[in-house]
Amino acid sequence: TTVTSEQIEHLHRRFKQLSRDELTIRKENFDSIPDLEFNPIRGKIIHAFFDKRNLRQESDGLADEINFEDFLTIMSYFRPIEMNMDEEQLDRFRKEKLKFLFHMYDSDHDGKITLQEYRNVVEELLSGNPHLEKESARSIADGAMMEAASICVGQMGPDQVYEGITFEDFLKMWQGIDIETKMHVRFLNMEPIAPCY
To answer: Can you give the residue ranges of the EF-hand domain (predicted)?
Structure first.
């Protein structure tokens, strides 16, 4: 998928703004993003920007800092659908986005999402709702965890041991959900971070 020169210029301005005109961005640079401040999974989003798996590197773990090329790589997961995409391109596009999400859930980087990891993310997402008590959020998270288990365990043989949600399971769990248009980054707005003099 191509990125226009105008989009690259916009992202480069945003990168320079975040990095304070340095050549790289570090995690603390994300502290100046107002839209992220109250996001319940703020830590996971920032973590995802430095996850070497999302940077399409072979190695595992986290980068200490990212350059503009890395930033473009991460932002490519959030690009919109193009009207001229064929079925194969749409499928690849969807899988890339879901792989990014999968890495956010897989906090121990072992290639599987344990039910506890899944439950933690759902609980964190719900924690941002001021109208939902902590116990209710925990109940909903438990229900989501059980639903995930039923989807995954339903495909297992009687002699198999459940070790966690694989990426293939994750794809099945998200089947029918319009991730292509819903997964976006609002904090790319240039306006909220005006330099203070």
So the answer is: 93-128
